[in-house]
Structure formats: C-alpha cells, structure tokens
Amino acid sequence: MRLTVHLMAATAILGLTACQSEEAAPAEDTAMAATEAVPTAGNSTVGGAEMFADKPITENAAAAPNLTTLVTAVTQAGLAETLAGPGPFTVFAPTNDAFAKVPKATLDGLMAPAGKDSLTKVLTYHVVPGTMNAAALTAAIAEGNGTAKLTTVEGEELTATLDGDRVKIAGMGGSVAYVTQADVMQSNGVVHVIDGVLTPTL
Prior knowledge:
The chain is of the alpha+beta class. About 40% of the residues lie in helices and about 25% in strands. The chain has a single domain (about 1-195), classed as Roll (FAS1 domain), CATH 2.30.180. A hairpin with a 2-residue loop joins strand 1 (about 45) and strand 2 (about 50). Helix 4 (about 70-75) packs across helix 8 (about 115-125).
C-alpha cells in the first residue's frame, strides 16, 4: 500500500513538473549537446546478455550477469512483482561492481530479513515513475540550468547533472553514481545502468 501511495504521489509531481517545463524549453543546440553526453544501449546487450524491449524490467534484469546482486535484492525486498507490472518505471540499475563498493557489513544488513524495510527504501530510491529516456533526462537537466530533480518512488529526490560528458546522479547524504549505459528499453519502462548505489535518508 505504501509503495502504491508513493507511486501515485510521485507520478503527480512529475506530471506537474512536465507541464511547467514546457514553458521554458531549452535551446535546441543545448538539448542536443546534453543528449549526446549519455551513452545509449541501443537495446543490444547488458553484461553480454541480450535485452528485449517486449519483456519487463525484472525478466531482462534476471538475464544480465552484471545485475545479479540487484535482482537478488529486488527479490529479497519483495519488489519483483511490482517491477514486472505495467509501470511504467525508469530504473537506475546498479551493477554488481556498484554493490561491491558498499561496505560488506552495510550490504549484509540490508539483505538480512531484518533489513527488508531499509532495503526497500534503497531500491525504490532507484526508481522514478514514468519512462524517462536519455533525451528526456538530458533535456530536464538543460531546462533546469544544469540540474534536474527527479522524484523517486521512495519519495525523496535524486539530482541529475552533467559532469563533463557523463550524466551524474546524486542521492541523499553524498551518494553518487554515473550512467554507464542508458535507454535499455523495457515493456514497462526503461533502465539506465549506473556504477554506484544511491542511498536515501535511512
């Protein structure tokens, strides 16, 4: 129930933001330059596994060998069914290497049964309602004069900026990740692969 409420609230906020941003569209050359900074996947492979635009997020992620920790965490948190649903969702998906940067004691605590609530918060903090592809993400950054605020399913915001030729996603408390592969299209949204784990207020 709480997840559903967060989804509805975040979707409403994003809808309002979209309406407001139409009044201040960026210059075409700025938007194009920003879009070119995001590496797109072309829906070929993730971690060497073929991705399919007609399959849901959970099914594609389960096939990617570099997303096994994420898949395990989603299952542990009981979110697999949600992320297999109609959505749509934009998921910033940390790789196994990203999870390996998290201190072992912290990760073990999150993955333990007693850490389920905190794990759910962390995972839903990587999900934004709606389908925000690379063009929409970089356009939002340009429209925000270099900063885009993304309201997550968890309820708190992520901050997207351009760092040179890379898109940087910042979370609460100093957590940072970069988009390493964008626009992995799914039947229920889009996945952007990132190299770090983003953390909300826990």
